[in-house]
Structure formats: C-alpha cells, structure tokens
Write a structure and sequence with these properties.
The complex is a heterodimer of chains A (198) and B (288). With 198 residues, chain A is an alpha/beta fold. Chain A contains six helices and ten strands; from the N terminus they run αβααβαββαβββαβββ. In chain A, α1 packs across α3 and α5 packs parallel to α6. The chains are: A alpha/beta (198), B alpha/beta (288).
C-alpha cells in the first residue's frame, strides 16, 4: 500500500508546522510511515518529509556525491528539479555526509536577501539521534524559556550555522529527521548556544 | 454535471505552495511572505487569505471554528464554514476550546488559546506602511532597512490631531523587535493577546497575496510613545446585559425600549459559555 498523497502529506505538514513554530519540539511522523513502500536507498522518514514539501516549482540539492540514483528518484517522485547548492531551495543532508562538506554547503547555500528573506534554502537533515537533552540550548520565538536539543551536529557545525544566520532576517531553516521517524526544526530565528562543558 | 471537489478544495500543488510559504512565514516572524493567492469561490478581500490557510492546514480529524467579528453565526463565518465542511467533511464547533483551527475575521477569542490550536486571521491590508507609501517596491525596502519612521509618523500625526493615537483597529505591532506588522483589523483590546501567545497565529491576505505569522512565545509590542502609552478600549463599569461578564470586548447597543446604552459580549461563544455555566449552577442549586 502506498502513502496517501493527500492525507498523509497533510499529516506530515502539520507535524512540520508544529515543530517549526516550536523550535526543538520533537514530533513523530510514524503513523503514515507504515504505508511507505518506496524502493529507495535512504531514510524513508527523510523522503516523507521531502515529499510533503517538494514539487515541480522548487529545486533541491543532495550533498553527497555517492547517491546519484537518489537524485533521479526524488525527481521522479516529486517533479522537483536538481540544482547546484547555491541555487537549491531544499538541501538534503545524510548523516554520513562529511562534516567539512556540510560546513562548506552552509557557507554557499541561499540565505535570501534583506528585501526577500524568504528566498532562502530549507535544509532537511538526516540525523542518527534526536533528543531533548544535551548541551545545545535553543532560545527564541516559539520557545517559552529554553530547550535542549541533541541532533548529532558538532559544535563546529552549529558555529557555521550561527555564522550564517546572524544577520536576521537572512538565514536558512533546518528540519532534522531521525531513524525513528521523529522530526525537530531549528529555524533561523532560534539562538543556538552551547553549554560550557564543566 | 457536478464534479466532486478534491479534499479541501485545492489541488495538492496549491496546498504545497501555501504550506511552503507558511513555514517561511513562521521562520521569519512578522515578515509578509508573498504567495500565489488562488482564485477562490468567494470574492477577494472577503477572507480568501484566511480560507486558503485553513484549507492548506486542515485534515480529516480537525475540528474547525470560524468567527466573524466575534460571531459564529454571521454571513462571512457561515459561508466559509460551509465551504470548508462541504469539501472536507470536518467537524465544526462553536466552542473555542474544542477547536483545532480557528479562523477569525477581526477578533481573537476571549478564552485563552492553547498550544494545540492554530489561529488563522483574515487580513484585508497586510502592509502597515501602505498609508504612507503606495509602492510595494518601496515598502519592501523600508522593511528590509528596518525603516519604520513612517509608521511612527502616522501615530504621531494622530496624536497631534486628536490628542491620542486614534487607531480604532489594526494598531501596528512590532514583532520580535524587528518587523512592524499589521495585526489585521482586530480591536486594540486584542493586541496584547498576540504577545507570547500559546497558540500559533497565522495571518493570510488573499487579495494582497501575503502570508505572515506570529509563532508562539514571540514578543509582540504595540507601537506607542513613552509619553503616550498604548491603551486598549475601556469598558469600565460596563458588563454584558446577557451574561453579566465584565473585562471582555463588548458591543455597544441601544436598548430600544428605554433608549439607554447597553453592552453585550462581542464574542458570542464566550457569552453562551458564561450563560451555560450560570444555568448549571442554577440547576444544581435547585436540585440538591
């Protein structure tokens, strides 16, 4: 049985919206996952999140060079076009992608302009862990006081992200997806600080 | 021939486009994200922005409430409700606390909203700088440069002319100390409800093709001067002639029999709720 393009994707979108408006809040998209039967060599929750947002009007980029078959599959399923990192509306990152490559991509990706900050990229990132604990603290709109979030991102990557989002309203927004079909978001407005290891 | 409409009226491509714009709006609080506003079966300027947001959000299990200036039963609310229900089959409610999505024209309900609710506001004029600058090209640059002297000047001129800020509704707010935003024509009374709201607030302007948002727990300050602080409409000494509640936004009416001024809750669902509670107490006291 295939996923329902209308209702399952609506379900995923609402979870995405919930997590995007409450940065760090973990939502589960497990319910429609049982119907996923795409023959694809990547995390299916990641694909499901991409299916909810991508269509023929947007472009995407996959960081890894080792997955040419995925580009073809995503184009087939969503009609979205593949584009270089500087132009892509959505950037898909896998957990085995090299840290240097991710860091480089953060420097190159679209962050919008002061006049049109919405012309920025959205990152969909596969992660091996997603928990509300650890030493990364989130603050900002959508968060009552502060929120801990562990994503498997190193401090170097968070630094690179902070560097690229410091000129609000410019910046990029991130959607993290783990193997348990959990999602959490960190939009550009979120201040990410790292607790001192004491 | 009558074709069966797709779930939630829209084709999936339209929904996705609105959804992407909404996520961007949430990520940039107060910024008006342009979107390709669709042709709707109601006229532009009559809630098409709110309606499009609602249709992009709604799922089979959602419970919907639609109000028009506090009333669940006025024309705009009823026709929007009917359209959404005919195309989705969702459950409707008038009780604020039962709703998952609340679409509203020009009011924020009196009962406090919760974190599992989404408030969708219909916006006729999303650009707070439009009265001082007609060109979108210019206003976009003003927002980019954080140049809101025009918005302040408008308020200043009102003080010069009337001795106070004379905005009856749609009093401009500053979101997260960055974007100045039109909160839609809600009374000033409702402006403070936007500040650090528990619920996500989405605003849609169909005719002007803009979507913007206020995420939960976000600072929303009404523009005001130090010596002319922001004030809300005062209903001091007034109470609803039906349920007796004070401290809510009220409509001023004339009692035709006596010719005196009477007040009535503007939020009909809240008024009904109060009346039901009073009745419950009354019934309980009789049958002990």
């Amino acid at each position: 049985m295939a996923i329902d393009q209308v209702h399952d994707l609506q379900y995923v979108y609402r979870k995405l919206l919930h997590s995007m408006s409450r940065p760090g809040t973990i939502s589960s998209i497990k319910e429609p996952m049982i119907r996923m039967d795409y023959q694809i060599t990547c995390n299916e929750s990641l694909l499901l999140s991409a299916l909810a947002l991508l269509d023929g009007e947007v472009t995407f980029h996959i960081l890894s060079d080792e997955r040419p078959e995925l580009i073809e599959k995503i184009t087939e399923y969503t009609s979205a076009k593949y584009a270089p990192i500087q132009e892509a509306d959505f950037i898909i990152v896998f957990h085995d992608d090299h840290e240097e490559a991710v860091q480089r991509a953060m420097k190159q990706c679209k962050v919008g302009s002061l006049i049109d900050p919405q012309q920025s990229s959205t990152w969909i990132i596969e992660t091996s862990i997603l928990q509300n604990e650890g030493n990364v603290l989130l603050k900002g709109p959508g968060i009552q006081s502060e929120m801990a979030l562990q994503t498997g991102f190193s401090s170097t990557l968070w630094q690179a992200r902070n560097e690229r989002t410091k000129e609000f309203p410019m910046g990029f927004d991130m959607i993290f997806v783990d193997h348990e079909s959990q999602i959490a978001c960190v939009p550009r407005t979120t201040e990410v600080a790292q607790k001192e290891v004491g | 021939m009558k074709a069966k409409t797709h779930f939630a009226f829209f084709d999936e491509g339209s929904k996705k486009e609105i959804r992407r714009a909404t996520l961007k709006a949430v990520a940039i609080p107060g910024y008006q994200v342009p979107f390709a506003s669709r042709e709707m079966p109601i006229a532009r300027g009559w809630g098409t922005g709110g309606l499009q947001l609602t249709l992009s959000l709604i799922g089979k299990t959602d419970v919907l409430k639609v109000i028009d200036q506090g009333s669940d039963e006025s024309v705009n609310a009823v026709s929007i409700k009917k359209l959404v229900q005919d195309t989705t089959g969702v459950q409707l409610t008038e009780r604020t606390e039962e709703a998952d999505i609340i679409q509203s024209r020009h009011r924020i309900p009196e009962s406090e909203l919760t974190k599992n609710q989404i408030l969708v506001l219909q916006v006729p004029l999303p650009e707070p700088l439009r009265p001082i600058e007609a060109r979108e090209y210019k206003t976009k640059r003003m927002h980019a440069e954080d140049d809101y002297s025009g918005a302040w000047l408008l308020l200043f001129e009102q003080i010069m002319k009337y001795g106070k800020t004379a905005t009856t509704a749609d009093h401009p707010v500053s979101v997260k100390d960055r974007y100045v935003m039109a909160p839609s024509p809600i009374p000033r009374f409702d402006n403070p409800k936007m500040d650090h709201s528990e619920a996500l607030i989405l605003l849609g302007a169909g005719r002007e093709k803009k979507i913007y948002a206020v995420p939960p727990y976000t600072s929303v300050k009404s523009l005001a001067f130090d010596d002319y602080p922001f004030t809300v409409e005062s209903f001091e000494g007034a109470h609803c002639h039906l349920c007796g509640t004070a401290d809510v936004f009220m409509d001023e009416l004339i009692d035709h029999d006596t010719g005196t001024t009477i007040y009535q809750c503007n939020d009909t669902a809240h008024c009904m709720d109060q009346l039901n509670k009073q009745e419950e107490v009354e019934v309980e006291s009789i049958y002990v």
